[in-house]
Design goal:
globular; eight-stranded antiparallel sheet; 443 residues
């Protein structure tokens, strides 16, 4: 195809040449872009799936979509709620009789809604490989028995991969199948999806992207040494899909009246990354239009999906690089403006001069399971955030520091060494929010 056309088809708002140039300029090896406008689907691809082999990216190539898989898991849950086999406010233990975490109150009272909205407080980054067998989620849930809390149940929002893996096991019990088989039966088969898979042996039957990683801000991307996350992370982040299949999933969200509940605000997000969280979806209001979607990343791959329901527009970007934030901002900013008349908000930036506030009130120690965070005042009117992974995360994540500059009396921004984009940090009562993850003040 020659490009992405306007809603009336009168003009091309993004041609293949410009897409090639933008992706190349951002040092992304390969990418696929898809746009849904009403009933019209438009896709384009550029670059290579693997810099070592030189195999070109095509519009039907499969990329790992990371945490966008959570929206698929949430949709599966909603289908089961619609069928009357479970309620959103059912306690997890009503479905998983052997479910248990460290806090007895949370064990007895956490609900499916808490898990869908990231408000359970259960340690959110329990990345635990329980093997390739069909019992991987059963074993994962059993091993949650000692998991602590990032915050009390329902007290705030903290992004929780763990909760979606637990939801995956709930789906298995309610359907009598594996999560992968339920994904096929509840989503892929009804929509006629032929390029949506979960296991590498399935994905490798197609043109499949390999992840590429960079360590420094200007380093050239190189192929990752691992394919992707373990099977136990399927419900929270292990789906491979083509852009066209993802747009078919987006069309389902636009056309199914029951699923509109998923984009109703459930919890305000204390950080400006997202306005509210729905039932599986991130929610925003831009220029008077509701926008919902999700982002995702795995080992050297990343994806974005945004949907504007009142204009029947959806945009998906798939790429085989761990750094596509600025590419996303440029491409989606242009397309939302040209297709929808929406000005996409600029990301939080580090101000040249710090806001004049008393930073001492935020100095202290904050903790979430797996991470110890220390906040100290610096000599420049800002704060130094030092994060140290603990427990199992200490073997897979590195310590980092961020110099935080005050933007407002609660919002700070800083540029960490692991990213080319500033990280927003918000202080909200007893909680420190780094992006969408919360830590509780300990001292």
């Amino acid at each position: 195809m020659q490009g992405i056309s306007s809603m009336d088809g009168a003009s091309v708002v993004l041609d293949q040449g410009r897409f090639d140039e933008v992706v190349r300029r951002h040092q992304v090896p390969g990418a696929c872009l898809g746009v849904l406008v009403g009933d019209q689907v438009q896709t384009m691809a550029t670059g290579v799936l693997h810099t070592g082999t030189g195999v070109g990216a095509t519009v039907d190539s499969l990329f790992q979509i990371g945490s966008i898989a959570k929206a698929y898991t949430a949709t599966m849950v909603m289908r089961l709620v619609e069928q009357g086999v479970v309620r959103l406010d059912s306690p997890v233990v009503e479905v998983l009789a052997d479910f248990k975490v460290a806090d007895p109150f949370v064990t007895d009272h956490v609900t499916l809604r808490h898990l869908l909205t990231h408000t359970s407080g259960i340690a959110g980054d329990f990345f635990h490989d329980t093997g390739r067998g069909d019992d991987c989620l059963t074993r994962y849930v059993a091993d949650c028995i000692d998991l602590g809390q990032d915050h009390p149940l329902g007290a705030t929002l903290s992004y929780c991969n763990t909760g979606y893996t637990i939801l995956g096991r709930i789906i298995e019990v309610l359907t009598g199948t594996t999560w992968d088989q339920a994904l096929s039966a509840l989503v892929a088969e009804p929509l006629g999806l032929t390029h949506t898979w979960t296991l590498p042996e399935d994905a490798l039957r197609f043109r499949a992207a390999m992840g590429h990683v960079t360590t420094g801000a200007t380093d050239a991307p190189r192929p990752a040494t691992r394919w992707g996350p373990p099977r136990s992370e399927g419900p929270c982040g292990l789906i491979c899909a083509s852009a066209s299949d993802m747009l078919a999933f987006a069309r389902l969200q636009l056309s199914d009246a029951y699923l509109t509940q998923m984009r109703q605000p459930q919890m305000a997000v204390p950080n400006p990354v997202v306005d509210h969280w729905g039932l599986g979806w991130m929610l925003w209001n831009w220029d008077g239009h509701q926008v919902f979607g999700h982002s995702g990343d795995t080992i050297g791959q990343a994806a974005y999906l945004l949907i504007v329901p009142d204009l029947q527009v959806a945009i998906v970007l798939l790429a085989n690089s761990n750094r596509i934030g600025t590419l996303y901002q440029e491409l989606f900013g242009h397309l939302l403006r040209e297709l929808c008349g929406i000005s996409m908000p600029a990301p939080v930036t580090v101000p040249a001069e710090p806001a004049p506030i008393d930073v001492e009130r935020y100095v202290g120690v904050y903790r979430r399971v797996g991470t110890h965070l220390t906040v100290t005042a610096n000599d420049d009117g800002g704060l130094l955030l030092a994060a140290t992974p603990t427990g199992g995360l200490a073997s897979v994540l590195s310590p980092y520091q961020i110099d935080l500059v005050p933007v407002t009396d609660r919002l700070f921004a800083g540029l960490p060494s692991y990213s080319t984009r500033p990280t927003p940090v918000t202080f909200d009562g007893d909680y420190l929010h780094v992006g969408v993850r919360a830590a509780t003040r300990a001292a």
